[in-house]
Amino acid sequence: MLRPYRELAGVPHLPWLLLWSMLGRTHLPATPLAVSFLMAGWTGSYAVAGVVGGALTLGMGVAGPVRGRAADRSPAGRLLLVTALGYGTGIAALGLLPAVLPGGAWPVAVVVGFLTGLSTPPVTAMSRASFPRLAKGAAQSAVFTVEASMQEVMYVVGPALAATVVAVWDAQVALWLCGLLAVFGALGFAGALRRAGLDEPVAGERPAGGRTLLADGSLALALATAMFLVASLVSIDMVIIAWARDLGRPAVAGALTAVWGIGSVVGGLIAGGLTGRVRFARRMLLMALGVAPLVLVLPPVLDPSSAWLIGLVLGVGGMAIAPAIAANNQRISGLAPDDRKAEAFGWMGTFTTAGSALSLPLAGTLLDHVGPAAAAGASAALALFGAFLASRVRDRGAVSVG
């Protein structure tokens, strides 16, 4: 069961590359939480907080394929430096707005959020494109599984850190800390790529005006599956934030998110040691079934609700998340051409951030007008539709658990 992990550890430079890629992404799950607290405190509306968070993620998605294409064609260090500086500047400006403008000026935050999202460092796409250049066979399967599990650790550490900073200081400081982590992580990841000899892109034929990757039906369906997977997850994040804020204990949001992430890490590590063919649609279905019980333990269905009961549901249901993410990432990597993998994962960023941009306002509206249980129900519906799409992806390449 541990053989794939031993092979992974033996690949030169890969463990450090994986570590820096995680550090370069820690800000991603923390930033929406900080933005939600900041905007809700500024305007008094979860719907507005969802719109601003959606604008930030939409900006990430719009520029995703462009950044991915640039990563396939130009030195990684230069691209990461330029985007890190732009993103850090935008986050600093977004944190200043509540201090200098009244709550009625929230549309300005939408514009700033969108522009900031455009400059997001493409650490995620570049890291997933680089793994197959170093790892083959069982080690390659293992690195995608370990990455998904570490991503769940990131989803524990990031939001927990942001929630703690909000509780001890305020949301403005939390947001600025997220920006600092983004810049530091991107520059560190650039150094790791250079040491691994991966700063230069893969050589290949790239004719001008070449066929779009979305013309591949299987790849397009896999990307759409990722969109609904992430839409479901970010909806639950907002549910947790809203419930904890209404309770008057923002630190509880970080604790519940940590429990959810720990469940996912455990599930991912177990899946990473197994062998056989991945049943991706089944994993998506299991994720949806893990989310659905939250409807029964949140207001207005259960009021008052219990943090212990919510944590139990999140911990058990979370075990299906990392296995589903790992299978989808490896599926997309297998379907994309070798010299266009960063572009493919850039498109993945577009699809997933579009899912976030659509689901955050939906979740915010349901939270404002119905309650957390309704938003959790919407999350389960999104995951179910993702399972349907996953069942339609043609399995041209074997994706093994390992």
Please give a quick description of this structure.
The chain is an all-alpha fold and 402 residues long. Helix content is 78%, strand content 0%.
Task: Provide a descriptive summary of the structure in words.
By secondary structure, this protein is an all-alpha fold. The protein has 17 helices and no strands. It has helices spanning 3-9, 14-23, 27-43, 46-73, 76-100, 106-118, 123-134, 137-168, 171-195, 217-247, 251-272, 280-291, 294-297, 307-317, 321-335, 341-369, 372-390. The longest helix has 32 residues, at 137-168.
Ordered list of secondary-structure elements with their pairings:
Elements: H1 3-9, H2 14-23, H3 27-43, H4 46-73, H5 76-100, H6 106-118, H7 123-134, H8 137-168, H9 171-195, H10 217-247, H11 251-272, H12 280-291, H13 294-297, H14 307-317, H15 321-335, H16 341-369, H17 372-390
Helix pairs in contact: 1-8, 2-7, 2-9, 3-4, 3-8, 3-9, 4-6, 4-16, 5-6, 5-9, 7-16, 8-9, 8-11, 8-15, 10-11, 10-15, 10-16, 10-17, 11-14, 11-15, 12-14, 12-15, 12-17, 16-17
Mean pLDDT: 82
Number of helices: 17
Which band does the percent of strand residues land in? under 5%
Order of helices and strands: HHHHHHHHHHHHHHHHH
- Tell me the helix content: over 70%
The gyration radius over C-alpha positions equals 20 Å
Q: Characterize the overall form.
A: globular
Q: Give a quick account of the main beta sheet: strands, pairing sense, barrel closure.
A: none
Unreliably modeled segments = 205-209, 397-402
Total E-strand runs = 0
Structural class: mainly alpha
Euclidean distance between termini CA atoms: 8 Å
